[in-house]
Structures are given as structure tokens and as C-alpha cells.
Design brief:
Number of helices: 14
Structural class: alpha/beta
Helix content: 40-55%
Shape: globular
Number of strands: 12
Distance between the termini: 28 Å
Largest sheet: 8 strands, parallel
Strand content: 5-15%
CATH superfamily of the domain at 23-110 and 161-191 and 243-377: Glycosidases
CATH architecture of the domain at 23-110 and 161-191 and 243-377: Alpha-Beta Barrel
Radius of gyration: 21 Å
CATH class of the domain at 23-110 and 161-191 and 243-377: Alpha Beta
Length: 378
């Protein structure tokens, strides 16, 4: 599936192709118009970018035609299908289009979705929560507006109906569109304390024969957890972790059935230990089991020491044979172009030659950042 540009003999007007495939995230507002899509594809051609992770599902909505999700409200009405237009525009130009889907996050705007068919209006019993039920949606969204650390409303991964719904969404997407890859994002819990959707708790009771309610209460009241409580909470956390992994596994089975040549990748928390224990995202298992073709750690820290530490953790947990499946994610929004370029070079020095940049949207706002691609060969 990976398309590499042919080697060129450099002439006056020719550019030498880069030694590595180039990956770039594209946030969904670029899909609002045909002109902005044209500009993005032309940018990719100019910069020899051959893999685009393009966000086609943002907050429980779609930038393509769907029976299961609402059309994004930032799109104008009409027949314009952004994903179809993008695929047609990029066709034959050596660019792989990966449909980037935000999985469990559902909404993060202060105002509710305009479309009454949005899943937030239709299935509020699917919402994840820490303990309060029913979820006060208005209050939750007000908190998002004043606290950037509050990400919004998420679907409950361990609710018995949520993963089945998401598989329907993925099936429709990979069946109806000739995409090169499916890129999973927000394939995790919002935070460690989430997961207490009452339907999910009922499911746990049914499957395990245990009520986790007293465990939660004891955790809140205890200054030091007993070995018994630690063992019980481990069972609960494994239940949560299994829910996310089950979706990734089922996505692999779906792709194998419908479009076997479609690459499955996931954007993940960069520190494997934090990803597993805080967000229940065991991406080492996903990669080792073959559920994913690629994993893209979002190693976005502007601090080089933390950036390097995340790479150390990957090194400690993965044999070298997995390096070609790991693409290092590097951000632009929180550092200078020079700092971002240094991290690209450091990643390659550490034998992680494949990097993905977040994001195209930053590059077109400040063209200094597009130079990180130009400096790769220096």
C-alpha cells in the first residue's frame, strides 16, 4: 500500500525525492470547500507528502455521506461530498488518503449539535461518565468552555451497544469509499475515572457476578488501598481496557472482510505506560497482535527530555522488528519550526525514521512551519 516517489535525477527544475515516506495530519475544517481541498492536495504534491491522515469524523459527525452519522454542521448544504471529492482529486497523484476518524469523543462545543439526528441527541444513554447519572450535558459542555483540560462528551467504550454502532460507522466508510487507510483517534477513555456508565456497570455485574459500586466508594474513602481492593480494581480496569481493545480487534476483522488492503493505524498516547493505565489504551497489544498495521504515538511534547523519554519507553517495550510499524507523531502548534525539525532529526537518530506532522492547518497559517519538510534532507 505504501507509495514511494520514484528516484529523480536532479536537474535545474527537479527536486530529489525524500528518503522517507512523509505523513501529515489534516484537520477537518480543510474539507469545507473544494478550493481548500485542492490547495491541500497541491501542497502535498509540492512537499512530496505521500500519506495524508484527513479527519473525516470529528465530533460524532461526518465529512462524507452517511446513514449513521450527521453531516458536519460546518459544511454548507448541498451535494458536495468532501471525502469523495478529495479521493477524486488525489487519485493518480501518489498520495495515500487515510480516513481519520475520532472514535469515542462525541462533542466538545458549548452549544449542542444543530442536527436533532446527531447521536448526542439520539443516544444519551451511551455517554460515558465518572459517577453522575444522568449526565448533565449542558453543565458538562459549560465546563469545556472554561477548562481546556475537559475534552467534552465521550461515548462509553464499555456500554454494550457502543462498539457495535462504531463498527457500523467504519463498515459504511470503508465499503463506500476507496480509502487507502482507516486512522483511529480518541480510541481511548477520556480519563482514568471514567467508565461508570450504568449500562456498562450492569454489563460488568452480569459478566463477572460482582458489583463494582462498593469498590469505587472504598477507593474514594481509602488513603491506602488494601491488596483486596487493588485486585478488585484491577479486574474493573481490565474490563475497561478489554472494551477498547475489542473495538480495535473487531475493526481488524471488518477490514479483513471488506477491504483487506486498507491500512489500519491509530494515533495513541506516546507514553505506553500512561496510555495503558490512565487511558486504557494498550497499543502494544494492538500492534503485537496484528490488529493495527501502524501506530502513531502523538509525541507532542515541546520538551526534548520528555520527547526522548517517550521514545525510551517504546524502545524498552518493542523489538526492533516493530520500528517500521511505528510512526513518530510530532506537533507544530507548541514549538518553533527549528524545535520541530530537531525532533524529526532526533527521531531518525533513534532509528524511528518515519514521522507524521501535526498539522497541515498550522503550516498554512504560518508558512515557516512548512520548512520542516524542506530541511529533512539537509
Amino acid at each position: 500500500m505504501s507509495i514511494s516517489y520514484p528516484s529523480l535525477v536532479a536537474g535545474e527544475d527537479e527536486k530529489v525525492s525524500p528518503p522517507y515516506d512523509r505523513y501529515l495530519w489534516v484537520i477537518r475544517d480543510v474539507l469545507k470547500s473544494k478550493r481548500s481541498i485542492d490547495d491541500m492536495v497541491n501542497f502535498a504534491i509540492e512537499k512530496n507528502i505521500n500519506h495524508l491522515f484527513v479527519q473525516v469524523r470529528g465530533r460524532g459527525d461526518s465529512f462524507y455521506e452517511s446513514q449513521f452519522t450527521s453531516r458536519s454542521q460546518i459544511l454548507s448544504e448541498g451535494e458536495f461530498d468532501p471525502l469523495a471529492y478529495l479521493l477524486d482529486t488525489a487519485n493518480g497523484k501518489g498520495i495515500n488518503i487515510h480516513a481519520w476518524v475520532n472514535v469515542y469523543i462525541l462533542w466538545s462545543s458549548k452549544s449542542l449539535p444543530n442536527d436533532e439526528r446527531h447521536i448526542l441527541h439520539m443516544q444519551q444513554q451511551w455517554l460515558d461518565t465518572t459517577e453522575e447519572w444522568p449526565v448533565d450535558v449542558g453543565k458538562k459542555l459549560d465546563m469545556v468552555a472554561v477548562n481546556n483540560n475537559n475534552e467534552g462528551l465521550f461515548l462509553s467504550p464499555n456500554h454494550p451497544d457502543v462498539n457495535g454502532y462504531l463498527i457500523k460507522v467504519f463498515r459504511e466508510l470503508i465499503t463506500n469509499y476507496d480509502i487507502d487507510g482507516l486512522h483511529l483517534d480518541y480510541i481511548r477513555y477520556q480519563e482514568a475515572e471514567y467508565g461508570r456508565n450504568p449500562y456498562a456497570i450492569a454489563r460488568f455485574k452480569s459478566e463477572s457476578g460482582n458489583d463494582p459500586g462498593p469498590w469505587f466508594l472504598e477507593m474514594e474513602r481509602s488513603t491506602i488501598a488494601s491488596p483486596r481492593l487493588i485486585a478488585n480494581m484491577k479486574r474493573w480496569n481490565n474490563f475497561k481496557r478489554k472494551a477498547v481493545t475489542s473495538l480495535v480487534k473487531d475493526t481488524r476483522a471488518l477490514v479483513n472482510e471488506v477491504r483487506p488492503d486498507c491500512i489500519i493505524s491509530a494515533a495513541v498516547k506516546p507514553n505506553l505506560y500512561i496510555a495503558r493505565e490512565r487511558y486504557f489504551q494498550e497499543w502494544n497489544v494492538w500492534l503485537a497482535a496484528g490488529y493495527l498495521d501502524w501506530v502513531v504515538p502523538m509525541n507532542y511534547s515541546s520538551k526534548k527530555r520528555e520527547f526522548a523519554r517517550n521514545i525510551d519507553v517504546i524502545d524498552d517495550n518493542f523489538p526492533k522488528k516493530y520500528r517500521e510499524k511505528i510512526i513518530m507523531g510530532i506537533a507544530l502548534h507548541n514549538q518553533t519550526p527549528s524545535e520541530a525539525s530537531d525532533k524529526i532529526k532526533f527521531s531518525r537518530l533513534r532509528q524511528f525514521p518515519r514521522v507524521s506532522i501535526f498539522s497541515y492547518n498550522i503550516m498554512i497559517k504560518d508558512h515557516r512551519y512548512s520548512a520542516v519538510f524542506d530541511e529533512e534532507n539537509h
